[in-house]
Amino acid sequence: MKIAAKSLLCSFGLLAFSPAWSESQTERSLTVSIAAPAYWCLYACNSAGSRLGFTVDIARAALESEGVRVVYKNLPFDRALFETKSGRIDAVIPAFKDEAPNFIFPPFAVSLTEYCFYVPKNESRRYEGMASLKSMHFVATSGYSYGKEMDAYISDNEGGRVTLIGGDDVPNRLRELVRLERVDALLDDRLLFESSRNRVDLVNAGCLNERHAGYLALSPKNSDRSYAIARAFSRGFEHIRESGQLCKILDSYGLGTDVVPGLNAGHCRSDAPSLN
């Protein structure tokens, strides 16, 4: 969701909280810390709520099946990236590989994102390829990656035809800017937008062709530890996928297999073995 600029990463001071682990821990006794913004629901939700988000639930189920304890907290995305890069948090979820260069990624993705433009229902503008953006002033989230072509366009046009905002409660702020007619359109994650109650009077005006796989992005600071977590996650992911537990997680959020790369209806068949 989100390329964090180096200047943002460097702007955070060193924080005085200690990691929730001991370097001597084995893979099966790890306590793994994961962070994500609360406003990414359904991907990642409020850590104090009844539902944590389907990617968080996938990571927890996979790691806990390997005896790994998971601690989840909410942070703005840029802050979560910084803390993970610094080694004070183990992972961000979900993150695109382009957003977290040099991070460590398991082979299995936990989500698949599609970005779309949204406009007021009485607005005639539509996204029909890059050329159509010449007549559109849109707002998007700072720190996100929308694909190489769109990222290049945003970089070239920020402050002109493109406005970027960051911080907390970004989705609602994007929508208000459109409703107040400060901009013509917003660019947002389709699942986030269409699962929100705050979408009244806004309609889909076209989607980008490229889709993005989201991963459990692990800290590059202590690579041995992160590779151990990645191994445990990978074993656990295969276990919950084959047992049908992964499909049950998605079903609890009203989602289908299309939101996780590599998952298909065969993994969700009614005769899939259940967990003991």
Reconstruct the topology from this structure.
Blueprint: H1 6-11, E1 31-36, H2 54-64, E2 69-74, H3 77-85, E3 91-95, E4 111-120, E5 138-141, H4 148-157, E6 162-165, H5 170-179, E7 185-189, H6 190-194, E8 202-218, H7 223-243, H8 245-252
Parallel strand pairs: 1-2, 1-3, 5-6, 5-7
Antiparallel strand pairs: 3-8, 4-7, 4-8
Helix pairs in contact: 2-7, 2-8
Structural Rg: 19 Å
Count of DSSP helices?
8
What's the order of the H and E elements?
Answer: HEHEHEEEHEHEHEHH
Low-confidence stretches: 2-24, 271-276
Give the number of domains: 2
Name the CATH superfamily classification of the largest domain: Periplasmic binding protein-like II
Give the % helix.
Answer: 25-40%
Spatial strand order of the main sheet: 2-1-3-8-4-7-5-6
Q: Could you give a short account of the major beta sheet?
A: 8 strands, mixed
Descriptive notes:
Helix content is 29%, strand content 21%. It has 276 residues and is α/β, with parallel strands linked by helices. Strand 5 (138-141), helix 4 (148-157) and strand 6 form a beta-alpha-beta unit. The protein has an 8-stranded mixed sheet, sandwiched between helices. Helix 2 (54-64) runs antiparallel to helix 8. It has 2 domains: 6-14 and 27-111 and 213-268, 3-Layer(aba) Sandwich (D-Maltodextrin-Binding Protein, domain 2), CATH 3.40.190; 114-210, D-Maltodextrin-Binding Protein, domain 2, CATH 3.40.190.10. It is globular. The two termini are 35 Å apart. The chain has helices at 6-11, 54-64, 77-85, 148-157, 170-179, 190-194, 223-243, 245-252; strands at residues 31-36, 69-74, 91-95, 111-120, 138-141, 162-165, 185-189, 202-218.
